[in-house]
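Most newcomers find our protein records easier to grasp once they have seen one. To make this concrete, we reproduce a full record directly below:

===
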Amino acid sequence: MGFITEDFLLQSDTARYLYTNYASDRLVLDYHCHLLVQDIARNRRFHNLFEIWLEGDHYKWRAMRANGVLEHYCTGGAEPYEKFLAWARTVPNTLRNPLYHWTHLELLRYFQIEQLLNESTAPAIWKLANERLMEEELTAQGILAHFGVAALCTSDDPTDSLDHHAEIQSSELTTSVFPTFRPDRAIRIGNPVSFNKWVAGLGQRAQVEVKCFSDFLDALRKRHDDFHRHGCRLSDHGLDHCYAESCTEAQAAAIFDQVRRGDEPAVAEATKFASYMMLFFGRLDAEKGWTKQLHLGAYRDANPGMLTTLGPDTGFDSIGDWPQVQALGAYLGQLDRAGVLPKMIIYNANPADNYAIATMIGNFQDGTVAGKLQFGAGWWFLDQKEGIEQQLDALSNCGLLARFIGMVTDSRSFMSYPRHEYFRRILCNILGSEMESGMLPNDEALIGAMISRICYHNAAEYLELPLAHAAPKPVASSFAAHSNRQHSRAVETGLSGRVHSD
């Protein structure tokens, strides 16, 4: 029997019953990811395990470096098989790192490989996985159907083309694919050369000649409209912390003009400009009924030398330690006073801030939408067992778990869809254990319905995405490969007298 059994992460009979009956076969709504839309549009076929698994995974690169693997085998010019072997030699040293769980869960769910990955098993695993990658089920679109992905939202800069999204939306792909409006570069004015180059691209894409600040706002508004026409219903911002300084349009325009002349702004000026822009984006989202996402607290590009060599998103980021709560409260308060507070999901990178952020969210629930402000799923360094449990505990203690809209992959890899299974198992384990200990009522209908809503239905209702097709039904093996049917029946029979609806 392999490492990933039917009982993986499920430590009680009730947890196993809840997972089997209320979580395992629910559809996936992956409302935040970094998959390349062109890979979906062209139904990319991955030719080997490196392409689908290691090509852009900074989690793995980070572990490999820590294991003494040279950059040549991470992001460098080594052959794909050599890079895979370097990863295989690293895996046994990732025990108790979530990568060990993810690695073997992914090998099982995608390729039905139960062997532990190490240097000795690597050649056979490479060969078998590459053979199975030739099957239609493991093309980009095949994977989405196989894992029951009803919809996914990519992350898109306002300067990005939406042609691939239009192509997908006119196709018969059963998974709906939508862009997400992520205008981070619109507030990054610290480097005038980079900012002005981006503004030129924005103007070209929006077909607006950007001569002044009002032109800049018009171009962004036009792109926001374009995204909406392509089904976009979410925006996203990756921020150290929120910005909520007082800044008039005239002040923002003066700072914009200064940067357009090539002059680097002072820190205080950059903060005021970002504050104005975040209010502007809040108004745009509120007008269209979008959901705004805030990803707070990541310390990005901490190694300046490697940033210069490799660029961003290559595994040199960490948890930041900025004061979050006062700035978040000020930003939410500004939007609320202006009557333009949109639905919002707030993700936190620092576990020390979990309770502070969860309680701040509660100050701005206004009764108009159930769970209008969401404490987002465990993110980045926190999307592992302990981090997920801590996020669920903070949300439960300070808000309403029953209104939570669930997990996202937040991934650049098509191999990441088992992260939804991982989350669902952890959720069911918590609730099942508390039912057995008497901390929660022994009520299948009550608890089971909440699990089902958290896994899919809450997100579908909250986000109001314009789903165009009938959603794919998950393939049973994607969430229950190698299941023991007799065991499942025994579990159900054994709980029939204890898990019930009152």
